[in-house]
Amino acid sequence: MSKMIEVRWHGRGGQGAKTAALLFAQAVLSTGKYIQAFPEYGPERMGAPVQSFNRVSDDPITVHCSVTEPNYVVILDPSLIEAVDVTEGVGTQGKVIVNTSFSAEEMAKKLGIAKEQVYVVDASKISNETIGQNRPNTPMLGALVKVIGTLDIEGVLKDTRAKLEVKFRSKPEVIDGNITSIQRAYDEVKNS
Amino acid sequence: MVKPIFSKGKIVAKTGNEMMAEAMRQIAPDVVAAYPITPATEIVQIFSQFVADGKVPTEFVAVESEHSAMSATIAASVAGARAMTGTSSQGFALMWEMLYIAAGLRLPIVMAEVNRALSAPINIHGDQSDTMGARDAGWIQIYSEDPQEAYDNMIQSVRIAETAKLPTMVTTDGFIISHCMAAAEVYPDEDVKEFVGTYKPERYLLDYKRPFTLGSIEMQDYYFEHRYQLAQAQRDAKKIILDVAKDFKNKFGREYGFYEKYKMDDAEVAIVTIGSAAGTTKAVINELREKGIKAGLIKIRIFRPFPADEIAKDLANVKALAVLDRADSCSGTFAPVYSDVVAAMYANGVTGPKTENYVYGLGGREIDMTHIADVFKHLDEVAKGKAQASKTVEYINVRIK
């Protein structure tokens, strides 16, 4: 049995952390993996820290408890680093992907973990340039796929495009912008 | 690699609520009357969208409360319609007096129920207190571990209800399953419709050529006979449930029974539980088996009617077992699932296994693999005579002192 991958997303209410986890799960399922996606529910307040989770496995997933030791943590809003213990349960092996213009060295210092565990990508800039709005959740999908390394980015892009085509039939520019943002974050995420 | 089991099945990523709403669309009942409540809101919301979009011909009645939801569903069923509803927690509680009427009138209503804690204190998260409280209402109760089971149970429930002439509820654990997206298989509309069939009520009030009275007052002369018949209908429903499960397996390939046995053949220690925690328990058992501990699980799917004789037989050879209840009876003694399991064992002469009762997860409180592993660890000690089985309810992951 291969090891299950567990992911925790950190965002702020309204930023799309839940949507990102759902999109990620759907896209990864289309490549043949078993998936789970679930948000942490509490009082719904715009801007409040929120979390969502994914599990990915080659085998059926039967666990239904929380993710406490994530292999990957995705941070949509770097200001959360001051407010929330974003590295909780990450240990010495987990990887953290941050939406930031700072370098991996600088973020590692801020997070208090080894530089090898930290990946950075300026997802806000990418989404501003490709979608025209600060919507870092979609590009971060691409960054996560790249850092995990064992997932099929072509399959993810194909499935996401198909989902967006249903939702934004009359706005093809939205579809292309989102797909480009995922591809760019996949290409631009770095460990330096 | 995720693959469909049914030749014409399709793999989708859907939550428990989405799967239940999808089953309702495919079943296409004549009437759905419902009122939204967290965490079952999406079932009603998605289904009403199907109705608005013309994807299902159901008459959707947006009522002003759950009491009215159940009343309208009863009225539709009495009139001869295939009728369904959905709710959770306080909404379910508000239906209370009508639940008994649906059962007493022997109406084959199907309800999608999302298990949630009851107030007070107010809490929106998952536990099974709501439907456990209605275990004596005369409804068939079918619990689901995950979104796939919720979907499959909904499809089977229609035939079970209509053959047994008993209202039937299908539940999922609130948020844990209702809002968890997972890989699941859906079947084509025509195959679901073929399996479910057309509802042909034996008697109905709009059948003006054969008028009859329903819901009349009955005193000492007849009431008891009708209540006996209701209790007997629950006993008779056991065969119906297995027959429908057999047909379901023949058609769609997935196997269902009263309960699922996981690694029970040689189990020395076992957990009996209901719902999503059973899935987590399976993962713990896999780890324990690698360490040589013979652990097993019985996951109850059908709680009403309770499969007493069968469960007693399957537990007869374990040395120690724990029943994990996601509801507390506040009875001064034990929680509901434990009480039924132990009564079944004693009645069947199964007195060998040591038994324990744990209450867990109230109001959505976390139950993770370490909690379940701790229960098994204690059971292992009890089985080996190194520890005594507790005589009172034990609690998992709660601050008592």
Fold topology:
The complex is a heterodimer of chains A (about 190) and B (about 400).
Chain A (H helix, E strand, L loop, with lengths): L4 E8 L4 H13 L4 E6 L9 E9 L14 E4 L4 H4 L11 E5 L4 H8 L6 E4 L1 H8 L6 H12 L4 H15 L4 H17 L4
Parallel strand pairs in A: 1-4, 4-5, 5-6
Antiparallel strand pairs in A: 1-3, 2-3
Helix pairs in contact in A: 1-5, 1-6, 4-5, 4-7, 5-7, 6-7
Chain B lengths: L9 E5 L1 H12 L3 E4 L6 H12 L6 E4 L3 H13 L4 E6 H6 L1 H9 L5 E6 L13 H4 L7 E4 L3 H18 L3 E6 L7 E6 L2 H8 L26 H30 L6 E4 L6 E5 L3 H14 L4 E6 L1 E3 L3 H8 L4 E6 L10 H12 L6 E6 L9 H15 L10 E2 L6
Parallel strand pairs in B: 2-3, 2-4, 4-5, 5-7, 6-7, 10-11, 10-13, 13-14, 14-15
Antiparallel strand pairs in B: 1-8, 6-12, 9-11
Helix pairs in contact in B: 1-2, 1-7, 3-5, 7-9, 10-13, 11-12
Supply database-style keywords.
heterodimer; A: 192 residues; alpha/beta; Pyruvate-ferredoxin Oxidoreductase, domain 3; six-stranded mixed sheet; 6 strands; globular; B: 401 residues; Rossmann fold; 2 domains; seven-stranded mixed sheet; 13 helices; 15 strands; 40% helix
Q: Explain this structure to me?
A:
- The complex is a heterodimer of chains A (192) and B (401).
- With 192 residues, chain A is an alpha/beta fold.
- Chain A has a single domain (5-188), classed as Pyruvate-ferredoxin oxidoreductase, PFOR, domain III (Pyruvate-ferredoxin Oxidoreductase, domain 3, 3-Layer(aba) Sandwich).
- Helices cover 40% and strands 19% of the residues of chain A.
- Chain A has 7 helices and 6 strands, in the order βαβββαβαβαααα.
- Chain A has helices spanning 17-29, 80-83, 104-111, 123-130, 137-148, 153-167, 172-188; strands spanning 5-12, 34-39, 49-57, 72-75, 95-99, 118-121.
- In chain A, strand 5, helix 3 (104-111) and strand 6 form a beta-alpha-beta unit.
- In chain A, helix 1 packs across helix 6 (153-167), helix 4 (123-130) runs antiparallel to helix 7 and helix 6 runs antiparallel to helix 7.
- Chain A is globular.
- The termini of chain A are far apart.
- The termini of chain B are far apart.
- The radius of gyration of chain B is 21 Å and the shape is globular.
- Chain B folds into 2 domains: 10-252, Thiamin diphosphate (ThDP)-binding fold, Pyr/PP domains (Rossmann fold, 3-Layer(aba) Sandwich), CATH 3.40.50; 259-395, Rossmann fold, CATH 3.40.50.
- In chain B, 53% of the residues are buried.
- Chain B has helices at 16-27, 41-52, 66-78, 89-94, 96-104, 129-132, 147-164, 189-196, 223-252, 277-290, 308-315, 336-347, 369-383; strands at 10-14, 31-34, 59-62, 83-88, 110-115, 140-143, 168-173, 181-186, 259-262, 269-273, 295-300, 302-304, 320-325, 354-359, 394-395.
- Chain B is of the alpha/beta class.
- In chain B, the strands form 3 sheets. In chain B, strands 3-2-4-5-7-6-12 form a 7-stranded mixed beta sheet, with helices on both faces. A 6-stranded mixed beta sheet of chain B has the order 9-11-10-13-14-15, sandwiched between helices.
- The A-B interface holds A 22, 25-26, 29, 32-39, 41, 58, 60-66, 68 and B 1-2, 11-13, 39, 124-125, 145-146, 173, 175-177, 179-183, 276-277, 279-280, 282-283, 366-369.
- Strand 2 of chain A pairs antiparallel with strand 8 (181-186) of chain B, so a sheet runs across the interface.
